[in-house]
Amino acid sequence: MKNRMSILSLFTMILALLSCSKSDDNITGTSSVTITVSTHDISFENTADTATVDVNVTNEWTIYTTEDWVKCSPSSSINTEETVTVTVEKNSGAASRTAMLVVKSATARDTINVTQNGDVSDDIDTPDGYSLVWHDEFDDALLSDGKAAMPGSDWTYEVASPGFVNNELQYYVSGITGTGDTLAYITDGTLKIKTAKINGNVYSIRMYGKQSTGWKYGYIEARLKLPSGLGTWPAFWMMPVNYTAWPDDGEMDIMEEVGYDPNVIHGSLHATNHYGSNPKSGTTTCSTSQTEFHKYAMEWTSSSISFLVDDEVYYTYNNPGTGTDDWPYDAPFYIILNMAWGGSWGGAQGVDESVLPTTYEIDYVRVFQKD
């Protein structure tokens, strides 16, 4: 009986100790985390810039943003006191934009609002009846380490192998090759798209402007200097945001030129009833397209599409009113800049690799819409 009582007493003591331990754990677990930030609102002009915010947290923490044009450094810390540098890219749109920074520690949160003004440049020539809604002047300064800047987050890249489209011969990369060669970079106020042969393969760039939103109608313009050489195929064109099938959803080629037929500029439209080698298309000659910058543009309305070089219209296609098989152009389209190597058109008369590396140069891209 005494043994049974001893065992019972010991069991009771163990339960009591476990109960105390659990109670202590609960007290520790409910201790609150305090987050304090030096400001809840940060404002920027439209240019690329930085600002700092002091963060005080009683626990390890992270900070993240809802938009990819904002970056935070450091993005996390075990320090209870830290100064975070907030960096914004330039805003190429005419409208202001906002983002939210969230400081997170355990279940605690605090937020910081970021506002950046739009670019309302008044030194840009604007077509009559239009207003500037977006542009990229590619005037970014060198980075702090002396390297060239790359296009901002308004641009995304295609990554693809040879034969991806049109039997082209190049690999498309996301700005930088696997060997560290930068093929899309900004120096001296222009974007350079470089096509190069590296370790036996040809690499180039195909990049998309505002791919997820695009624009419906407008005056779309770029100032370009084209590369030279047999096999080159530079382009400035647009594809539908809500793409499902080609050519049904349309394609608008504002500028194309091939190296075996230098200085002949093509503007073309593709749709179900006119595509491939039989588009609605016009051509013009620009004798210095490979040695000087020229303006290439498209004026796009619900009733017609016109192609221009240096403000002169050389081809217009009027909406026939017969439906989307002839006119699938009443939808948002986004901008594409690419430099193909070879392919069904660019390589129709062969390629000359001795011209590599070669560069397609873009001074600016601008989008205007009706007032």
From TrEMBL:
Keywords: Signal. It comes from Mangrovibacterium diazotrophicum. Residues 1-23 form the signal peptide. The keyword Phosphoprotein does not apply. This is All-beta uncharacterized protein. InterPro entries: BACON, Beta-glucanase-like, ConA-like_dom_sf, Glycosyl_Hydrlase_16, Ig-like_fold. The lineage of its organism: Bacteria, Pseudomonadati, Bacteroidota, Bacteroidia, Marinilabiliales. Pfam families: BACON (PF13004), Glyco_hydro_16 (PF00722). PANTHER family: GLYCOSIDE HYDROLASE FAMILY 16 PROTEIN, GLYCOSYL HYDROLASE-RELATED.
